[in-house]
Design brief:
Elements: H1 8-22, E1 27-38, E2 44-52, E3 55-64, H2 66-80, E4 89-99, E5 103-111, H3 113-133, E6 151-156, H4 161-171, E7 180-185, H5 193-206, E8 213-218, H6 223-226, H7 232-239, E9 245-249, H8 257-261, E10 264-266, H9 269-319, H10 321-325, E11 331-333, E12 351-356, E13 359-364
Parallel strand pairs: 3-5, 6-7, 6-8, 8-9, 9-10
Antiparallel strand pairs: 1-2, 1-4, 2-3, 4-5, 11-12, 12-13
C-alpha cells in the first residue's frame, strides 16, 4: 500500500521557511548556559537550557561568531567581573535560524549583563529568607570555640595563593604559637563548588579528629566566580556543622550567604590567621596579667614583713643598754656578770665590774654606805 510522504530535505526546508517567517527579527531570549566552548577558529559555541523544579525542560544550540565574540564577552566581563561560563543565567538577543543540515541555532548578537547580576541577587535574597525562616542564620552562634583553638581543618584548593598566605602567616607567627593545620581539598568556584565543599565538611566530621574549627577560604574573585557561596545547600550544611565554621572569602560585596551562616567571617585568609593568633595573644596577656598580680601580691607581703623587721630592729636598738651608757650612765655587775640593781648582797672585798660606754673598770668593794 502506497503512503504519501515527503523527503527529509523537504521537511527541513519547510521548517526553515517556517522559522524564518515566525522570527524575521532578532528577539530577546532568557536561558541558562549548560555548556560553552570557544573553538580555535574564534567562534564560541554554547548549549542553552531552561530548568524548572530541577528538571531540564528545553535545550537549544547557540553560537557567538568570531566577529562579535570579543565585543560581547568583553562587555559582559567588564560589567559583571566574570567571563561567560556555564551555570549562569543570561538574557541574550538572538537571531533564530534553522539549517537543513544542523537544525535550530540561536545566533547571539548581544547579552544584557545586568540581567545576569539581577538573577543572582534575587536568588541570593530568596536563599537568605529561606534560611531565616528555618532558624539557620544564627545556629552556628550556639557553638563555642575553645580559648586556645589548636587543630584546624581547612577547606581550600591546594595551590590557592590565599591558602599559602594563611599557612605562612599562621605557622610562622612571630610569637612561636603552634597550630595543627589539615587541608581538605575542594573546588572553590563554579557550579561544582558547593557540592565539593559540602563533601569536605562531611569528610571532616567523619574523620574522628577532634578539630576545634573548620576554615573555608579562598583569595577572592569576581562576583560570578564567588556566587557559589550563595548556594542554599552549602549554607544549610555550614549552619548545621557540629564545629565552628570560619569563612575567609575575599570579595567586594559585604557578605555572601556562607558568611552569614558561619560562626565568624573575615575578609581574607591572612585576616583569618590573625584571628587565631589573637586568641593565643589574649591568653598570653591574661597569663602575664596573673603573673604580674602574683608578683605584686608577693611584693606587698615582703614589704610588710620588711617593715615589721625594721620596727623590731628599732625597738631592739632602743632597748640596747649600750645606748643608755652613751648618755653618761654606768652599769655594775658582780663577778658572775649579774647586774647589780642594789647594794644589798654586796660586801667589802667583792669584785665588781663597772661598765661604761667606752670600756669597764675592774673594782674591789671597800665598803658601802
Amino acid at each position: 500500500m502506497e503512503k504519501e510522504f515527503i523527503d527529509l530535505l523537504t521537511l527541513q526546508t519547510m521548517l526553515q521557511e517556517g522559522v524564518e517567517e515566525i522570527f524575521p527579527e532578532r528577539i530577546w531570549v532568557r536561558a541558562e548556559v549548560s555548556s560553552i566552548g570557544r573553538k580555535s577558529n574564534g567562534h564560541c559555541y554554547l548549549e542553552l537550557s531552561q530548568t524548572e523544579d530541577g528538571t531540564t525542560v528545553a535545550k537549544a544550540k547557540a553560537v557567538i561568531w568570531r566577529s562579535r565574540y570579543q565585543e560581547i564577552a568583553g562587555a559582559f566581563e567588564n560589567a559583571t567581573g566574570a567571563m561567560l561560563r556555564e551555570g549562569i543565567s543570561l538574557l541574550a538577543k538572538v537571531q533564530v535560524s534553522y539549517s537543513v543540515l544542523y537544525g535550530l541555532t540561536l545566533t547571539i548578537d548581544e547579552i544584557e549583563p545586568e540581567f545576569t547580576i539581577g538573577v543572582k541577587e534575587l536568588e541570593r535574597r530568596r536563599t537568605i529568607e529561606k534560611l531565616k525562616a528555618e532558624g539557620l542564620l544564627e545556629k552556628q552562634q550556639e557553638l563555642e570555640l575553645p580559648d586556645l583553638p589548636y587543630a584546624l581543618a581547612v577547606i581550600s584548593a591546594k595551590d590557592a595563593a590565599g591558602y599559602g598566605d594563611f599557612r605562612r602567616h599562621l605557622l610562622e607567627n612571630e610569637y612561636g604559637f603552634a597550630f595543627r593545620v589539615d587541608l581538605f581539598e575542594a573546588t572553590m568556584q563554579g557550579v561544582t563548588a558547593p557540592e565539593s565543599i559540602v563533601d569536605a565538611l562531611d569528610e571532616i566530621e567523619a574523620s574522628g579528629t577532634g578539630y576545634d574549627a573548620v576554615l573555608i577560604m579562598r583569595g577572592g574573585g569576581s562576583n560570578l566566580d564567588m556566587d557559589c557561596f550563595d548556594d542554599y545547600g552549602l549554607a544549610f550544611r555550614i549552619a548545621n556543622c557540629c564545629l565552628p565554621v570560619f569563612t575567609a572569602i575575599g570579595h567586594d560585596r559585604d557578605h555572601h550567604v556562607a558568611d552569614m551562616v558561619a560562626f565568624r567571617s573575615v575578609k581574607t585568609p591572612t585576616a583569618l590567621a590573625d584571628a587565631f593568633i589573637e586568641c593565643y595573644m589574649a591568653e598570653d596577656e591574661r597569663i602575664g596579667s596573673y603573673a604580674t598580680r602574683l608578683r605584686l601580691a608577693f611584693a606587698g607581703k615582703i614589704n610588710a614583713m620588711e617593715s615589721r623587721v625594721e620596727l623590731l630592729c628599732s625597738r631592739i636598738k632602743a632597748a640596747d643598754p649600750r645606748n643608755i651608757l652613751t648618755r653618761g650612765y654606768a652599769l655594775a655587775v658582780d663577778a658572775k656578770g649579774v647586774v647589780l640593781k642594789s647594794v644589798k648582797g654586796v660586801n667589802a672585798g667583792d669584785k665588781v665590774d663597772v661598765m661604761f660606754a667606752d670600756g669597764k673598770l675592774n673594782c674591789t668593794v671597800n665598803g658601802k654606805v
